[in-house]
Specification:
The protein is mainly beta and 188 residues long. It has no helices and 16 strands. It holds the Pfam family EFP.
């Protein structure tokens, strides 16, 4: 058993007869009244995100998990298929278990969180950033960079990201996976 002081991003807990992964939390100490922890939880079975407030010192049941590196192989529409990089076993996961499936490129190595009690995969953690090629964007107009203007661009996985005006088709860009935002252009 853990308490609210053990809450951190990525912690898996058992709550309301389901397993949830904490994706956001905030410890709040108001001037009056007891402290509490405001959390955002994502169900690892359905992918549904809920908000919950735990009072300070509240007991929570944490789930023991292991992490393993898996390589993304392909998606067949319903399932995403991964291969363990150590023993080459394969697993398949529903889209709900993935944080950002639209930024997942074939061959990408991700971290899969596995419940140690029943060896079931719970969720997939993407790397902090991914490098993808821009497949479609409107051409930028020369000299139109006085402001922090952006334009939509489609990357090779099909995701749409707002990029600066100087990015062209064929450029490789680094995308922050947590927010799905442009970070920088990659020079080759």
């Amino acid at each position: 058993m853990a308490t609210t002081s053990d809450i951190r991003n990525g912690l898996c807990i058992r709550y309301n007869h389901d397993i949830f992964k904490i994706i956001e939390f905030l410890h709040v100490k108001p001037g009056k009244g007891p402290a509490f922890v405001r959390t955002k939880l994502r169900s690892v079975t359905t992918g549904k995100v809920i908000e919950n407030t735990f009072s300070a010192g509240h007991k929570i049941e944490d789930v023991r998990v292991e992490t393993h590196k898996f390589q993304f192989l392909y998606s067949d529409g319903e399932f995403y298929h991964f291969m363990n990089t150590e023993d080459y076993t394969q697993i398949q996961l529903r889209e709900a278990a993935l944080d950002r499936p639209d930024l997942l490129k074939e061959g990408e190595v991700v971290t899969v969180i596995i419940n140690t009690e029943d060896n079931m995969p719970l969720s997939v953690e993407m790397p902090a950033s991914v490098i993808l090629e821009v497949t479609h964007t409107e051409p930028g107009i020369k000299g139109n960079t006085a402001t922090n203007a952006t334009k939509p661009a489609t990357v090779e996985t099909g995701a749409e990201v707002n990029v600066p005006l100087f990015i062209n088709e064929g450029d490789k860009i680094k995308i922050e996976t947590e927010k799905g935002t442009y970070k920088e252009r990659i020079k080759e």
